[in-house]
Recover the amino acids of this structure.
């Protein structure tokens, strides 16, 4: 079997093993002319690689069919990632005016309005006077839960604004809650 190269377009095989050099050149020229005629007459071929493969497939016998290349130019559309969404009923709580030493407890209600399980990863507070309590288990889409906050006003006076930061797997990753109020001291009448 003799293999011939067609100007960088691929390989053509001749079944006749007793082919002279002159016959091989004529066969090569004939295949190149066929390739040129096919390429120039086809107006719908835009990809030279597939045109070359088609030409070689026509020129080669059935036993040596050339596979068509896979078109990798089209990419499937990106799927939106399912994410949880943390939604608080009210992220701010004003406890009003209290006397020093009183303990305030408040519950922040929230709901997972997203499409994946919500995980509360951590709750940080701005001072030691505030203690959070939050769920450690994932909250399914559409489900609600709570974050409980205890504020101890001992040693605090005046306007208080302890900040609470909730870290979760939702977007945005952190959300702020706020306690506000005034701590006063008892006065003698």
């Amino acid at each position: 079997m003799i293999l011939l190269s067609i100007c960088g377009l691929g390989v053509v095989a001749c079944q006749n093993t007793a082919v002279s050099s002159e016959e091989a050149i004529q066969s090569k020229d004939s295949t190149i002319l066929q390739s040129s005629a096919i390429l120039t007459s086809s107006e719908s071929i835009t990809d030279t690689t597939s045109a070359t493969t088609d030409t070689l497939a026509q020129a080669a016998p059935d036993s040596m069919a050339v596979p068509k290349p896979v078109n990798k130019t089209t990419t499937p559309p990106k799927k939106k990632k399912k994410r949880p969404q943390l939604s608080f009923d009210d992220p701010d709580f004003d406890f009003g005016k209290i006397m020093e030493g009183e303990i305030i407890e408040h519950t922040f209600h929230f709901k997972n309005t997203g499409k994946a399980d919500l995980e509360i990863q951590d709750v940080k507070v701005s001072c030691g006077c505030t203690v959070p309590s939050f769920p450690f288990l994932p909250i399914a889409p559409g489900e609600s839960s709570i974050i409980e906050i205890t504020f101890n006003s001992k040693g605090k006076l005046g306007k208080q604004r302890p900040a609470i930061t909730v870290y979760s797997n939702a977007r945005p990753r952190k959300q702020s809650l706020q306690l506000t109020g005034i701590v006063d001291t008892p006065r003698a009448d």
In short: The chain has two domains: 2-64, 86-184. Residues 100 and 156 are 6 Å apart (CA to CA). The first helix runs from residue 21 to 41. The first strand starts at residue 2 and ends at 5.
